[in-house]
Records
---
Amino acid sequence: GRSMEQVVEKLRPYLLGWKAYFGLAQTPKVWRTLDKWLRHRLRAIQLWHWKRPRTIYRGLKAMGASEDVAKQVAGNCHRWWRNSNGVIKIVLTIAYFNGLGVPRLS
């Protein structure tokens, strides 16, 4: 599998290209919606990379999650898409993705 850094590295040129090409459009709501969806998808990819409950728990604890949040996410580990839009937002924040180099679309 690929690390999250590799995923972002592959994704970054596409996002910057879309932003440059469609940047003149007067559609801020569309950009915000796409930005939210993108981060939702990246959270799902991170959960999918971790796969097992124990790995999810350890990964979230290493990123500074509380015990309750880590247990809640790890306990529902095979529902990556549904789980990636809940309390995991506390740990995998916009600042986390900004640190990885994911460009903001909105």
---
Amino acid sequence: MSVSLLRVQLLSPMAQQLFGASSRRGLADVPTTLSALPQSVRNYVKEKANLCQPDDIYLCDGSEEENKRFLEIMRRAGIAKPLRKMDNCWLVRTDPADVARVESKTVISTADKRQTVPIPKEGVKGQLGNWMSPSDLQAALQDRFPGCMAGRAMYIIPFSMGPVGGPISKLGIQLTDSPYVVASMRIMTRMGRSALDAIQGDNYVKCLHSVGLPLKDISKPLVQNWPCNPSKILISHIPDRNEIASFGSGYGGNSLLGKKCFALRLGSILGKREGWLAEHMLILGITDPRGNKKYVAAAFPSACGKTNLAMLQPTLPGYKVECVGDDIAWMKFDADGVLRAINPEAGFFGVAPGTCSHTNPNAMRTIQSNTIFTNVGETGDGGVYWEGLEKEVDTSVGVTSWRGEMWTPHSRNQAAHPNSRFCAPASQCPSMDPDWESPEGVPISAVIFGGRRPAGVPLVFEANSWQHGVFIGASMRSEATAAAEHKG
């Protein structure tokens, strides 16, 4: 396909019925040709379109009308189904080979290995990330991406991490061939025209993603209609070019490139350059009975309770807890020396199992509408089910497991995958802090470090000083969880 004359086109035959000429009214204010894009974005799209060879290119605007069409595309393709018991909620089941982050195939590429990871003793495998040389990475990408979108559409997603235009916020452009990614990025980021208009020059992170399965290469039915290429998965980060390239996986942690890839891995490097911190932390505000309010950040690994703590409903009389964010914090000292933090995300990508009205009533209220559920069980009356909802959901109506099999409480396998997720707008959480979208961020008064340690250490203890706290935080360990490929 020649991109020199390429227009930002519609999708393939099925989707053209949904995005046809009569429906373009909802997209009228979005640039409809590559020439209307900022020059640097135009160059990036042309380069990757020539590499990936999509049949069509479509620029996303993030509108509700557009979102409905993407959900309908997924419904017709058998990727997603509406949950009739809930309000605009959808269920997605993935290939069982694509259910978690793949840390062993996640790399950072720099000229000097020491820029990325400490170099351990010969024969010892390091535990603090994976490095790949630029030449090896280039060969790996060249082995994967050429022609990978043949028969598919390339979707252009302009997005902002943090409020658009904020002093700590960052912009990104993600190119993907996955409608699931588009629908999820609309929830997790500030996506659309406002983000595109804020791009000036190269002030954005370039994100390329493909499920890694050209239509012509599909020789047998997909497992649960989920396109992926597990044997070729690679999630790469190129700090010198502010680029991310992810191949082969559609799972959120590997494909929603604004999340772990941008907000944490590349964010840590951007922060080091620019004087701020990107941390795997929740942010919450606590108000005591006298009306004094303090904001706290807390660092736990995935699936260790950040979301539950961020949405805590206190039982102590007179106390109130409000959520700023449940997963990632970008922090920077302001002109007065106050450490301020923003939640760069706009949604929750939470672990479903264990979430219930007892452990997290605010999360349960949040996910009743406009939510995408991935790899949870489905009840016969069109609701959702996972381990932890035994006392709240009537399973006698029948339950279909995340693998698409009939399930009962006596089944040997679980109804939901241990890393099954809900993707819901943060604005729906009843305990969101009034300043959760403050561009300047909220002032941080304390930092909590935690993890999954069922034995050997006290449940809670306090550092003697800030210096002691840094030592404790840097030396903590935690059990592996189902959020990565080596568990669950």
---
Amino acid sequence: MRKIFFTGLILMAWGISFTAMAQMNTTMDICTKHIVPPFISDGQQYKALLTGEEIAEFRATFYGGSTYRISVCSGQSDGNIVFSLYDKERNLLFTNKDYENSPYWDFRFTATIDCIIEAELVGGQASGFAFMLIGFKQL
């Protein structure tokens, strides 16, 4: 009896983790649809589990003379994430909050800059995964 219980428990845990992974992959697919030619991904997947009012912080270096696209997503639709781009002194450079929580935005940098990117869930969401992709424009 004990063996059956533990086997059932293991199968249930495996099923739950498989479902969670499938949901994360679906959300990542939504994020990926914004990184299309002429943009190519930098190969990184930035993700964080957020609850309540938590804010995820990511760091990236953007090289001068290049155009980049930042794509963010959470859940099953666009517009669920507010992201803000800061320089390393925390001066606000951009926030998608001013643009109806646009799921992506293009940036052109004239000089190389280290940036901090903050992402938070739109109000009303108790928890969720925040995903971010960065693409650069092919020359």
